[in-house]
Amino acid sequence: MNRKSCARRVLIGALLTSALLAGGCTTTALIVTAVSVATDTSVTLAVVKHVIEKVNEGEPPPCHSLDSVERALSPRCGAFVAGSIDPRDVRTARLQTCPLGHAAQDPRLWPVLPELIAKGAQPEHCPQSPLLRLAQREGCPDFAAASAESREALVWLAEADARAIRHDVMRMLSCPGARLAGMDRVLDRWLANGALEAGAIGFGALGALHPSGLDSPLARALEARGHTARAALGGHDGKQPSGFEAALRSADFAALDWWFDRLPQLAQGVPPTQGDQLHWLPLARVLVPSFVERPETQPQLVDYLISRGASPSQRLPFDRALTVKAYAKKLNSPLVAQMDPAPAGRSIAAARPLPPAALLTAGVQTPAALIAAGTRGDAARLVAAPQP
């Protein structure tokens, strides 16, 4: 080895060492520059490139190597710049996931949606509905925080893709945040266009509604068109719980009234949604703190269910040796005492949160927007929370 070649290799080694210590995206550029200066042999360059690949293995590719769609959908590359997407990149779609689905599922990326759609992205190119990806990731996103353009893009995805008509999407679009932002108009349009006809969809529409949306013109219109509470107890392909279970978990007593007024037998048991399952007892379920969204509502739920006909002496479907009361003792639940007959003067109704109509007379300051939107569950939570 001659002196000149040896000097080159020493220089390359020194630069490689400093580059490896530097780390990050600058590593690649520094090494390539070093090789370009220090050697004119393609063999050495190939070796260094191989080293670079090994050093960066498992790391996300540098932003400068991404196409315009990938860069727009990568928050690590900085804020999205309107007008930066090349329509050719929309057609080639180098992303391993559907660009529309990737953008829809993450509220941080909603600003990208209008431009993706304007430059040719179509939901039918996605393996599943982009809105379903969002609904199964976030049950009630903050739609009000999005721009008007982003919300319109989400509405377009709901109306342009028939696969969006799913249980979890209906739950999301009828939640309080969606109603406050006007996103529930999608459901009205689906109904008007005949997309929610009873028996034509694979789930019960009334059970898909958010519990706080049961006392709404849409719910009444669905009932008028043949949808029933009984059909809403059936199974569905989704991650969100059934409508009755969601009402029970959230202690939405107005929604529970809606269910029990139509199906009083639910107090004695809820039918299974699949043939290999057992029915379940609401009174036993609410004894488990992790079942309810707010454990402090357990006492009210126990009193309420007993007032609706649930029996502490009923035997558990999964363990016939235990009654509900014995199950409460086994759990060391502080609610065991409530399993005894109610003493004279004990008021079940008094334990329940006030309905929205009573909030004003009770002197509680409640956001007018929540009352106007009919978000009974949220208004009740305001009452249940400690007042300053």
Explain what the structure shows.
This protein is an all-alpha fold and 388 residues long. Among the domains are: 3-57; 123-231, no CATH class. It contains 23 helices and 2 strands. The protein has helices spanning 3-22, 25-38, 42-55, 68-72, 87-92, 99-104, 113-118, 130-137, 148-160, 167-173, 176-180, 185-192, 205-208, 217-224, 229-232, 243-249, 253-262, 282-285, 298-307, 324-330, 356-359, 368-373, 376-384; strands at 315-316, 319-323. The chain has a two-stranded antiparallel ribbon with strand order 1-2. Helix 1 (3-22) packs antiparallel against helix 2, helix 2 (25-38) packs antiparallel against helix 3 (42-55) and helix 8 (130-137) crosses helix 10. The longest helix is centred in the N-terminal third of the chain and has 20 residues, at 3-22. The radius of gyration is 29 Å and the shape is elongated. The termini are far apart. Residues 19-38, 344-351 and 354-388 have low confidence and may be disordered.
Structure summarized in a few sentences:
With 388 residues, this protein is an all-alpha fold.
**Main sheet overview:** 2 strands, antiparallel
Distance between the termini: 82 Å
Rounded to an integer in angstroms, the radius of gyration calculated over CA atoms is: 29 Å
Number of helices: 23
Order of helices and strands: HHHHHHHHHHHHHHHHHHHEEHHHH
Helix amount, in percent?
Answer: 40-55%
- Quickly give the structural class: mainly alpha
Report mean pLDDT, rounded to a whole number.
80
Strand order of the largest sheet: 1-2
Uncertain ranges: 19-38, 344-351, 354-388
* Overall outline: elongated
Number of separate strands:
2
Percentage beta strand:
under 5%
